[in-house]
Design a protein that fits this description.
By secondary structure, the chain is mainly alpha-helical. It has a domain of 161 residues: Leucine-rich repeat, LRR (right-handed beta-alpha superhelix). It is built from 13 helices and seven strands. It has a seven-stranded parallel sheet, with no helix packed on it. Strand 5, helix 1 and strand 6 form a beta-alpha-beta unit. Helix 3 runs parallel beside helix 5. The chain starts with 5 loop residues before the first strand and ends with a helix. The relative contact order is 0.06. It is found in: Cytoplasm, Cytoskeleton, Microtubule organizing center, Centrosome, Centriole. InterPro entries: Leu-rich_rpt (IPR001611), Leu-rich_rpt_4 (IPR025875), Leu-rich_rpt_typical-subtyp (IPR003591), LRR_dom_sf (IPR032675). It comes from Ophiophagus hannah. It holds the Pfam family LRR_4.
Length: 983
């Protein structure tokens, strides 16, 4: 745990940062998607480079004073409004260059600039990303202010200084550094492989193993540094390209590593073969490396052929071998010097030095026998033969072991290749498993979010249904009110029609009375004319009947007077005739005016009659319309009642569907949870299997390496035995040392055998565990298949339910269309009635104007009558002056005329008063009716508008609900298909 470099605690329930003080080498820490409120407990993490605290409950930045090596800080999706903790990161000692603060509550530009001014290495700042921003971003010109105040910035909100989008996804530097360290280790180790091949010891590369372990741990962990947070789903194409580039880069590095490993193995093989050839040349054996020759060597007899040779040949062979040994020693020394020069850059020289020491010791051991050969030749021959036999047996055994070691080397090379291929396959499987687990986690989160959204939408739909119920109730109340108002309007209209009929009958009676009065006045005027003509005739008769005196003078005077009188009379007659003519003209004018008035009154009466007929016809039509509208209202009431029943049925169905959906969602959640648990168990089991495989491979490699070491030592022992058999006394001295080595090696082999037995037992136990796990995996697969079948059945049921809902919605749409058509017809009928009311108002206005014109004409006629009275008075005065006899009669006629005129005036005044009172009452009633009708029309229009708006809202809500339901269904089908594909 002390050497831990990366720690990923994403998506847990952590509320406080603690217990991290012992992780001194920690470089990458991911605490995203937790419940952290404060930044604390990080003071001991001096080597920390990247810190991810996204998707938490942090409100203030603090506790970062001791993080000198921190380069990247992710604080997105929090509640931060105070950045005062960044003030402590000022100066050249801090290396922070990348800060992510999108989806927070930073609202003060000055505070932001104060906290970020001292960060010298800050080059990348994100305050807005994927439409998630801070309140500061809404201010005008905040980008220009930040770029001017922070000149070190090169990237702001994913865009460079020029406003162009920048690739924000950077490769994981820690992974690349691990791979670079691995390459450097491989390169340094490749230089030392030449020296290591001379000693058949296991290749110990602790640094390479450490780097590979770090890289494998990296591959298992999800690269959190490349993404701002796991909750932030990358939908654009740029992150995918960046991931592809990172994968390709890592693949290239892996290919380079495998290539270097192959080079190392090939070079080691070549060195081993060269060494074998050299050693076989020195021992005067065949130089072939095939297994057949080695097998032939093992089948030889224990007593070799060189036993027949003489001592001279032995001495020659010993001298030649000693010279070859000296050459070999010089060659090894030169190699050791070269390796020592190259060793400055390598990382593991201990094994080389150990191998060189072993070679030196063997050479020193070989140098000693020269002085002791003479002493051994002097000794008895019996001991030599015994020692020769023992040495020959040991040499044969060592040859067999050497041949076995060569075969083991070949098998090891093949097994290494197989292990490399298996490692590649395991890496691929691990990458695929990690990718699938990430996809499954993302899908599960999406499903959870979708389930939450569906729950919220169900709540919204419930609220909408309640609102619709309330709206339907309000509509029913409004319809009941409209029905009551229509009944009241019908009653008021019937009353108004009755009053109008009464008024029309009264007007007809008044017109008849006026006609009778006019006839009476005409008769009276004719009587006056007859009286005047009779009196003129009587006056002429009286003048004719007067007695004339028979005197000349009298007659002359009379004749003169008569002539004068005649002239006067003629003049007077002329004047009277002129006056009469004028009066006749005036009378004719009056008659014409009376005739015009009578014609006007007749026209007016005919118009009134026609209007009355029209009104009666319109009343009949209105009655029919009212009956039709009442029938329609009854039909609409029945339809509304049916609609309410249908709505109630739909509500019941919707509640049932909601319950079924909730059950389905609950089942899906439970299934998803079980699947997640199963996936986690599978992952743990796969990890355990991989660890077991790694341990097995390590153990096998260690065993094979130890066996190869033992075989190599035995082969060397055989070689040295042959040389000792040829050299004689020199081998006797080395015998004790070789026996000690053999004892040590035998003890080591026994220990290794015991370890192998224990490892084999552990492997058997682990293989049994793996078999049990495979059986459980099979059972889990069968359970998953059954669950897939259940999910398919549920999908089919959902599809059938959706089809039924669509059919019901179509029927409802048809019903709503019919209702809308009926409403449109009623609206058209209302508009027609409005037009008719307007026409009637115009007719009433015309009638009022005609009444005003008639009043003016009656007033003019009254003035003319007054003028006629004045003229009659003047005529009376003239007749009184000239003819006294006619005065009395004229006075009588004048009195009669006065009486008649007074009667006419009284009748006219009474008629005028009655007419004016009727007109005023009629006008007042008309005004009241018009006002009431306007109010009713306005109220009806308002109610109609309200009903139309409510119906439109209902239609819009139904359409929106349709769309949302279709989108949800599509989304659910897509999500379920993705889940099936993922499974």
């Amino acid at each position: 745990m002390v050497k831990l470099h990366t720690l990923n605690l994403h998506c847990n329930l952590i509320a406080r940062i603690e217990s991290l003080d012992h992780l001194l080498n920690l470089q990458h820490l991911d605490l995203s998607s937790n419940r952290i409120h404060w930044i604390e407990g990080l003071s001991c993490l001096a080597n920390l480079r990247t810190l991810n605290l996204a998707c938490n409950l942090i409100t203030k930045v603090e506790g970062l004073e001791n993080l000198y090596n921190l380069t990247k800080l992710n604080l997105s999706y929090n509640r931060i409004d105070d950045l005062s903790g960044l003030l402590h990161l000022r100066g050249p000692n801090y290396k922070i260059n990348h800060i992510e603060l999108h989806s927070n509550s930073v609202n003060n530009v000055n505070h932001l600039l104060q906290c970020l001014c001292g960060l010298q290495y800050l080059t990348n700042l994100t305050l807005e990303k994927n439409e998630k921003s801070n309140p500061v971003c809404a201010k005008i010109g905040y980008r220009e202010i930040l770029l001017q105040a922070l000149p070190q910035l090169t990237i702001l909100d994913g865009k460079n200084i020029f406003g162009e989008p920048v690739n924000l996804m950077e490769p994981n530097s820690s992974d690349l550094k691990c791979l670079e360290d691995l390459l450097s280790c491989l390169v340094s180790s490749s230089y030392t492989d030449e020296e290591e091949t001379y000693v058949n010891l296991p290749i110990i590369t602790p640094r390479i193993d450490q780097v590979l372990a770090q890289f494998r741990q990296r591959a298992k962990m999800s690269p959190w540094t490349t993404t701002s947070s796991s909750t932030e789903i990358m939908s654009s194409s740029e992150p995918e390209k960046i991931k592809f580039d990172n994968d390709s880069r890592i693949k290239k590095l892996e290919e380079q590593i495998s290539h270097l490993l192959q080079k190392v193995t090939n070079s080691s093989k070549a060195d081993v073969t060269v060494k074998a050839k050299k050693e076989t040349d020195f021992t005067s054996e065949s130089g072939s490396e095939s297994g057949k020759e080695n097998r032939k060597a093992t089948k030889r007899s224990k007593l070799p052929n060189y036993r027949k040779s003489t001592l001279s040949t032995k001495l020659r062979s010993q001298k030649s071998k000693l010279s070859a040994r000296e050459q070999e020693k010089d060659f090894i020394k030169s190699k050791f010097q070269e390796s020592h020069i190259k060793e400055g850059q390598s990382s593991s020289p201990a094994s080389e030095i150990a191998s060189l020491k072993i070679v030196g010791e063997t050479l020193e051991k070989l140098g000693g026998p020269k002085s002791q050969l003479k002493k051994l030749n002097v000794d008895t021959g019996i001991q030599e033969e015994f020692t020769y036999r023992v040495l020959i047996q040991e040499l044969d055994q060592e040859r067999e072991k050497r041949w076995k070691a060569e075969q083991a080397e070949k098998k090891l090379s093949e097994s290494i290749k197989q292990l490399q291929n298996q490692a590649k396959e395991e890496k691929d499987i691990q990458s695929v498993a990690v990718y699938t687990t990430d996809r499954l986690q993302i899908d599960i989160r999406q499903l959870k979010e979708e389930a939450e959204k569906l729950g919220k939408e169900l709540e919204r739909s419930k609220q909408k249904e309640e609102d619709q119920q309330k709206a339907v109730q309000t509509l029913e109340e409004a319809l009941s009110k409209l029905e009551s108002q229509k009944a009241q309007q019908q009653a008021s209209e019937v009353k108004r029609i009755q009053t109008a009929e009464l008024k029309a009958s009264a007007a007809e009676r008044e017109v008849q009375l006026l006609r009778i009065c006019l006839q009476q006045q005409k008769e009276k005027v004719e009587q006056v004319h007859e009286l005047l003509t009779l009196r003129e005739q009587e006056h002429r008769k009286e003048l004719e009947t007067r007695v004339t005196l028979n005197g000349s003078e009298f007659q002359e005077a009379l004749s003169k007077e008569v002539a004068r009188e005649e002239q006067r009379h003629k003049d007077h007659i002329k004047e009277l005739q002129e006056k009469r003519h004028l009066l006749n003209q005036k009378y004719k004018d009056l008659e014409n005016e009376f005739r015009v008035a009578l014609t006007i009154e007749a026209k007016r009466f005919s118009e009134v009659k026609e209007g009355f007929d029209r009104l009666t016809a319109e009343l009949a039509e209105h009655k029919q319309v009212l009956l039709h509208s009442q029938q329609k209202e009854k039909q609409s009431a029945t339809l509304i009642h049916e609609l309410t029943s249908v709505v109630k049925e739909q509500k019941d169905k919707i509640t049932e569907l909601i319950k079924s959906k909730q059950d389905i969602v609950y089942n899906l959640k439970s299934q998803i949870q079980t699947l997640e648990n199963m996936v986690e168990e599978d992952q743990q089991k796969t990890i355990q299997l991989e660890l077991l495989k790694q341990e097995k491979s390590k153990l096998t490699s260690q065993v094979t390496a130890q066996e190869s070491v033992i075989d190599g030592l035995k082969a060397e022992r055989k070689i040295w035995g042959e040389e000792l058999a040829q050299q004689g006394a020199s081998l006797a001295q080395d015998r004790g040392k070789l026996e000690a080595k053999i004892e040590v090696l035998t003890s080591e082999t026994e220990a290794l055998k015991k370890q192998n037995e224990s490892f084999n037992d552990a492997l058997q136990i682990k293989s049994k565990i793996v078999e049990d796990q495979t059986e459980t995996i099979r059972k889990l697969k069968e359970a998953s298949q059954n669950r897939d079948e259940q999910i398919r059945n549920l999908r089919e049921d959902n599809i059938e339910i959706q089809k039924r809902l669509q059919i019901q919605l179509q029927e409802k749409d048809a019903q709503l269309d019919n209702l809308l058509e009926k409403l449109e017809r009623q609206n058209e009928r209302k508009e027609e009635l409005k037009h008719e009311l307007q026409e009637k108002d115009a007719e009433l206005n015309d009638i009022k104007e005609s009444y005003s014109v008639m009043n003016k004409k009656w007033q003019d006629k009254g003035g003319l009558l007054n003028k006629l009275e004045a003229q009659v008075k003047q005529m009376k005065e003239n007749f009184d002056i000239r003819e006294q006899q006619l005065r009395e009669e004229r006075d009588k006629s004048l009195q009669a005329q006065k009486i008649m005129m007074e009667k006419l005036h009284s009748v006219d005044d009474a008629f005028r008063r009655q007419h004016e009172s009727t007109i005023a009452a009629h006008q007042a009633e008309l005004l009241q009716l018009a006002n009431e009708k306007q109010k009713q029309v306005v109220a009806a229009n308002e109610k109609v508008c309200q009903v139309e708006e409510e119906m439109r809202q209902l239609l819009q809500e139904t359409a929106n609900n349709k769309k949302t339901m279709e989108e949800k269904i599509k989304w659910l089908t897509v999500a379920l298909s993705d889940i099936q594909q993922g499974l």
